[in-house]
Amino acid sequence: MEAEHDIIDLNDIIELVNGFYAKVQHDELIGPIFNDVIKEWEPHLQKMYAFWNAVLFGVPGFTGNPFARHAPLPIEQAHFDRWLVLFNETVDALFAGEMADQAKKKAETMALMFLSKLQHMRGCPAKVIV
After folding, report:
1. Predicted confidence (pLDDT) per residue in 70-113, tens digit
2. Which of 10, 52, 121, 122 is deepest in the core (most CB within 10 A)?
């Protein structure tokens, strides 16, 4: 079944975030990392609704420093790759359109930025990802 509508409002963001993190929690690679750090999922999900609402629609309400929360985690390229696969699968299963494409582009940009910053912070040479 193909997605029939684009991401248009907070309700769609909630559907996206819930679907994505349901996959994350059960994923063999990244699930254990998230499940170890996030003891109560509801507050995290609420924060992610606000985050993606700000990222996609410019709606104020998100506070926090996502990179600082990820910096101490044992995550590498493979984790970011898997995160993107799960995110893109979720978007594609639920939505189609310009905003859905924008969400995937924003996620890819964030993953690349986080990975680059982590590599720099850990003293690893920067890698060019094409």
Report:
1. 776 778 889 999 999 999 999 999 999 999 999 999 999 999 98
2. 52
What's 125's DSSP letter? P
Counting the structural domains of the chain, the total is 1
Which conformational region is residue 64 in: left (phi greater than 0), alpha (psi within -120 to 50 degrees), or beta? left
Residue type, 112: L
Buried b (16+ CB within 10 A) or exposed e, 51-65: bbbebbeeeeeeeee
The model's pTM: 0.88
Instruction: Assess if residue 127 is contained within a domain.
Output: no
CATH assignment at residue 93: 1.10.490.10
